[in-house]
Amino acid sequence: MQVCGVQLSSATSRWRESWPPFGGSYECAGHSCCISGSQRPLCRVQCCQVPRSTGNVAHLQKEDKYSCVDRSTSYLHVQTLRNFPIEKLYGEVVLVRLDSVLLLDPLGLSSCSLKRTLSTIKYLYKAGGKVLLVTSWDPVLQSVNPVLKSTESFADYMSSLLQVKVIPVNGVPCLTSCKKEERVQNDIILFENLLNFRGENANCNDFSQKLASGAAIFVNDSFSLSHKIRASTVGITRFCYASLAGFHFEEELMQLLKINDTTRRPYIAIIGGSNFLRKAPALHLLASQCDGLFLVGKLSFQIMNGLGIPVSSCLIEKNATKEVLQLIEIAHNRNIPIYYPTDLWCLNSNNNEQLEIFDSAELLSGLISLGWTPVDIGPSTLERISSLLSSYKSYPYQIPWDDVFSDTTQPLFVDIGSGNGLFLFQMARNWEGLNFLGLEMNEKLVVRCLQDVASAGKRNLYFLSTNATSTFRSIVSSYPGQLTLVSIQCPNPDFNKEQNRWRMVRRMLVEAVADLLQVNGKVYSVVPIFPFQMLNMVMCLPKHGSNQSSYSKLLPLFLNC
């Protein structure tokens, strides 16, 4: 399944959810791209492309190693930091718009999006620019994250991420608010929460000019707000001679441009935000092309109202009733599902630190008038999505094992991180009585391997492009035969670096291998540190309940190796 996640809302309102369906059946996916959109799912913005610099500091111009996009076959019609002459950054004041939700990602430095954002800042800093950071966060985010209690605490957090001193500056966010010594120092400056100033949301010209005062270059790395007309995303561009897309912004836009190119089915769109009337053309187009819709945020309230569910009048866009009913009719005629939340986290308007969970119907029919405002989906919705993922498999589609292998009763050998496939090709030639499956994240390598499999006519060998850490259980559990052997020859492409050793082999993967491996099955590794790493994880598993079998199966295996 291909999932198109269209984020049409503020970055501070992230809805991750499972929904009760309207018509049709549920499908779910194991991977998604979270992108922003306006009225069309395909974005075409025509701007000039600045040639790549060949200056004496070109060694700083590196490919974004956290990107999964093949730029050799793509063309981005925006001016990007990657293609901006790096020597022109030296000595310039550069203002960077960031996404605070992304910076506070619970995955920390394991998040590729966070890494890309940090690489934008580091790139500018190392190129000799004076970096000014601006971002925003609402009271809800501040109430649940102590890092956002003050500009000072957020600056300390940013310093720890960047390993560079970040100086907090309160007051009107402009260079003139800084002390003279702060201006001349080579430290990064972080300004106060932009939502503390009315001019931000109003896209005030005077506020935009103050924000840009002293800055020559503007870098936008807050893709989730790219559709918002704000001083820090639109107004500021009038006063800077260059406006560039940061590394994270560029990657997300590349994903957006690829949406209409997919041929995989089912194709599900996840849409969030508000202002149904403005987004109606995009929603109708998605409903006519996709195999299902997930509506979250304020958009979901319009659908619920259209389906006859009582919704408080303050949440209804009365001028969008016609468009809502048209969307429901399109979905009904195509027999595709529309999903919405079943429960919601709500914030007390009289106490910004009081959060409670309410059933959607209960909340929307009356509790709004008592001062409760929905801010996120609730735990029942999360449990629902979790159960659906396990029921319908988190891998993008059900694997047709009978088409992949000539005999699905043969034992299965799975190689995690199969790379160029040479190991499995040799094994498949020597052991015709086994079926071999390679799991590899690099899609280019998988495509090449599958071409070689087809050329050789091998019916006991197959490769899948996937993140085995999260999809191993759903993929292998659907195999008709038994899992006999699992090999993990390189837990990380650069396992010699200590910080990388624990990136792939995590508890989720260890438990999945233990649960699915047949009795007397084997785990094979040629990396010295790996068996001890996995043994350590096995020793940490609870020795009772659902983990007892995992512990008892894997512990003897590693004690004997």
Automatic annotation (TrEMBL):
Annotated InterPro entries: Phosphoglycerate_kinase (IPR001576), Phosphoglycerate_kinase_N (IPR015824), Phosphoglycerate_kinase_sf (IPR036043), SAM-dependent_MTases_sf (IPR029063), tRNA_(Gua-N-7)_MeTrfase_Trmb (IPR003358)
Record-level GO BP terms: gluconeogenesis; glycolytic process
GO cellular component, one term: cytosol
EC code: 2.7.2.3
ATP-binding recorded as keyword: yes
Lineage: superkingdom: Eukaryota
Reaction catalyzed: (2R)-3-phosphoglycerate + ATP = (2R)-3-phospho-glyceroyl phosphate + ADP; guanosine(46) in tRNA + S-adenosyl-L-methionine = N(7)-methylguanosine(46) in tRNA + S-adenosyl-L-homocysteine
Keywords: ATP-binding, Kinase, Magnesium, Methyltransferase, Nucleotide-binding, S-adenosyl-L-methionine, Transferase, tRNA processing
EC primary class: transferase
GO molecular function: ADP binding; ATP binding; phosphoglycerate kinase activity; tRNA (guanine(46)-N7)-methyltransferase activity
Cofactor(s) required, per the database record: Mg(2+)
Protein family (similarity comment): Belongs to the phosphoglycerate kinase family.
Description of how the protein assembles with itself and partners: Monomer.
Protein name stated in the entry: Phosphoglycerate kinase
Organism the protein comes from: Aegilops tauschii subsp. strangulata
